[in-house]
Specification:
mainly alpha, two-stranded antiparallel ribbon, about 0% strand, globular
Length: about 190
């Protein structure tokens, strides 16, 4: 829970640092050419990060739905794993433009250089968490990274009321869902 709540703050901090060191060099016209290519590459890797991280949640649901829990672990075939990861990757490919445009307008006016920084940071954070077995939400990482990239160019660039609503939603829903799951598990264990 604490790692999930820390994800936006970590993403914002990393994006702020990357933006302060890299963005000043990215204002030239030639840099825009390279940013477009980096953007395409980071988008592809971001899809993989989303599938890697988000698929863990679907795998847990598949295990419960299939009754595939065995002593000492869970029994899922490689096909089950692919079938769980593929929809997340496809969803990312199909929905990224809508989600990114909403985030890009809601938090602050995002430019290509901000998007690339946010993609790099959120992808690195989500992939690292996914490989470590820590299920983070990509939207937390992306939003945090956008806030950090925007704040690096001036604190007034960020719409803090919108960023605060995102943070408030995560701070409320994560502990609530964890508490509800614990309560339901306790009830089910007594049955």
């Amino acid at each position: 829970l604490s790692l999930g709540l820390a994800a936006p703050v970590v993403a914002a901090s990393l994006a702020y640092l990357l933006s302060r060191t890299a963005l000043p060099a990215l204002h030239a016209q030639k840099a825009r050419y390279w940013l477009r290519h980096i953007h395409v590459a980071t988008f592809g890797v971001q899809c993989v990060a989303y599938a890697t991280n988000g698929a863990q949640k679907v795998l847990a649901l598949m295990i419960l739905a299939n009754g595939a829990i065995v002593r000492g672990g869970a029994a899922l075939s490689r096909l089950d794993v692919v079938l769980a990861a593929a929809p997340f990757g496809l969803g990312m490919l199909l929905g990224i433009r809508r989600v990114s445009s909403t985030l890009g307008r809601a938090v602050f006016a995002v430019r290509l250089r901000h998007a690339v920084v946010a993609e790099i940071v959120s992808t690195a954070l989500s992939l690292s968490a996914g490989l470590a077995g820590i299920p983070l939400t990509m939207s937390q990482s992306v939003t945090g990274a956008l806030v950090g990239a925007g704040a690096s160019e001036g604190v007034r660039r960020v719409r803090w009321t919108v960023a605060g609503r995102f943070l408030g939603a995560w701070a409320l829903t994560m502990p609530t869902s964890m508490g509800l799951a614990a309560a339901l598990s306790a009830i089910a264990g007594r049955s």
